[in-house]
Known about the structure:
Number of domains: 1
Radius of gyration: 16 Å
Distance between the termini: 16 Å
Number of strands: 6
Shape: globular
Structural class: alpha+beta
Largest sheet: 6 strands, antiparallel
Strand order of the largest sheet: 5-1-2-3-4-6
Number of helices: 5
Amino acid sequence: MIRRLSKLLLILVSALIGISGYSQPDSCHLRISLLTCSPGEELYSSFGHTALRVTDQSTGSDLVFNYGTFDDSDPYFYLKFTRGLMLYALSVYPYTDFQWEYKMQNRSVIEQELQLTCEEKRACMRCCWRMRGKTIAFTYIIFWMITAPPGPRIW
């Protein structure tokens, strides 16, 4: 599972290097974007958020793959969060729901289309679908983020 997540992140980092203001015509029906969200008022949203948007023109689907989903009803939520002990899962839901949630919180969402080949888009989509609903354990190092220079970070 960690290997798949690493592969997905490698594809994303490679694609970020190729982001440009000019996109070339693509016969692929998939469009993959990185969504970068501004910080929120809750502690867990203080540093913003990122997610993937996948639009499939052939089916009309417009989905967000959110790899930072967690259970905030846990009575030890903030203790686990600040210690880096939270378990995260990948959730999938319509882009309209994602957009509405951030609009209701008065948070901005910036979208950057990733310049991937059709095969890279398909590989990214396959990896996202295989990972959905699975719990992914990774360390959220909140104190490092507080002292680190500002800016988006994707590992």
